Amino acid sequence: MDDKVLEAGNQLLHVDIHVDEHEPRRGILELLSKLRPHWKAEDIQMKAFTEGITNQLIGCFVGSLQEPGCVLVRINGRMTELYISRDREVNMFQVFHAHGCGPEIYCSFQNGICYEFIRGSVLEDHLLQQPSIYRLIAAEMGRIHSIPPKHNLPVGPLIWTKMTHFLTLMQSGANSAPTPTQRTRSCIFPCSRAAVQDMPGHEVLSAEMQSLRRRLSQTDSPIVLCHNDLLTKNIIYNSTENMVKFIDYEYADYNYQAFDIGNHFNEFAGVADVDYSRYPSVALQRDWLTAYLESYKHNTGREVTVTEAEVTQLYIQVCKFSLASNFFWGLWAILQSRFSSIDFDFQRYALMRLNYYFEKKEEYLGLTMSKLTFSR
Questions:
Q1: What pLDDT was estimated at residue 194?
Q2: Pick from 257, 256, 259, 275: which is nearest to 353 by CA?
Q3: Neighbouring-strand partners of residue 235
Q4: Looking at residues 144-171, what average pLDDT do you find?
Q5: Which residues 6+ apart lie within 8 Å of 133 measured at CB?
């Protein structure tokens, strides 16, 4: 065996090379010589996908991107290993694939992974509001949430450990100088220097997280296998087969059921141009939650009938955990603003997420079954 090719856990191939994020072609061709040895270098085409704000993603193919055999090469974002467990991500890839919910992972390399291209297209934001589409998404999430932990071992929620780690990194890096890329990087929308000065400090954010943890821990939301990052760029829609698949498992892990759903609802607001007027209406949420519960019950072997009370209870939980989602990604964006080389205004994004958290905090935390009445 080539001395650059090693075997990782669960027989995953590891190719011991580093792919240059600025000039990736040479490194990618070396990867493909292991994964697709019958491909001729001169025939290989590469397409960069630009939707992501963390990593670089490049599709490699001969002939057509949609033909079988296409390989996706993902180059990890700068310093992301500080807050993403790459071993855990590989494990999640394998779990999702084993249950028919995700692509096959082909190999890892020093600063990324290669995996199967799922035929279809990245979902467009406006389609999140379309009933025939959002019901597919709800059903697929219900299916994923039904995947049991290995050996049925007890599992804990991801968010508190992860947010505590974010806060620790923020504190340890509080006095670090920006990278040259950070000093010169332009924003994809105008920076607001006045707003950036209003960013809550570490002490405030740490106290807020502890308060949120105390209050949400009283909410009886099941711990299930979650994607935890279900924005449109992570949803592949195949219109021919009328199906959706979720990709990108950097944050996938066991977590609160209501967090995964609330996080997805927050993503209706968008990323590059965050607009919370696009947050789903109560009627849409209830229809979405009904489709979700039907799928979740079916896939866990329970009676599929869904009651209005069940939908209302889950709606309340989702509202509460949508707060945790905004807080989580607010902290994440603060870190990204310090470490990432991606051309994106992470500080403004952090403020958008945190401002909405504080705006909705008391309203959502105060929701109870007795306070809500809905007419269909």
A1: 34
A2: 275
A3: 246
A4: 91
A5: 123, 127, 237, 244
The tens digit of pLDDT for each residue in 24-34 reads 999 999 999 99
User: CA 125, 296, 214: angle at the middle one, nearest 5?
Assistant: 80
- As a dihedral over the C-alpha atoms of residue 180, residue 184, residue 185, residue 191, rounded to 10 degrees, the angle is 130
List the structure tokens of 22: 């600025």
The predicted structure's pLDDT at residue 49? 85
pTM of the shown model = 0.89
The full length of the chain comes to 376
Helix 257-266 to helix 282-299 angle, to the nearest 10 degrees? 140
For residues 350 and 337, the answer to whether their CB atoms sit within 8 Å is yes
Q: How many whole angstroms separate alpha carbon 86 and alpha carbon 52?
A: 17
- Neighbouring C-alpha atoms within 13 Å toward the C-beta of 162: 25
**Structure confidence at residue 173 (pLDDT):** 67
Q: How far apart are CA 266 and CA 257, in angstroms?
A: 15
Write a three-state SS string for the chain: CCCCEEECHHHCEEECCCCCCCCCHHHHHHHHHHHCCCCCHHHCEEEEECCCCCCEEEEEECCCCCCCCCEEEEECCCCHHHCCCHHHHHHHHHHHHHCCCCCCEEEEECCEEEEECCCCEECCHHHHHCHHHHHHHHHHHHHHHCCCCHHHCCCCCHHHHHHHHHHHHHHHCCCCCCCHHHHHCCCCCCCCHHHHCCCCCHHHHHHHHHHHHHHHCCCCCCEEEECCCCCHHHEEEECCCCEEEECCCCCCEEEEHHHHHHHHHHHHHCCCCCCHHHCCCHHHHHHHHHHHHHHHHHHCCCCCCCCHHHHHHHHHHHHHHHHHHHHHHHHHHHHHHHHCCCCCCHHHHHHHHHHHHHHHHHHHHCCCHHHCCCCC
Q: How far apart are the first and last CA of the chain?
A: 64
Burial code of 39-51, b = ≥16 C-beta within 10 A, e = fewer? Answer: beeeebebeeeee
- Check: CB of residue 241 under 8 Å from CB of residue 271: no
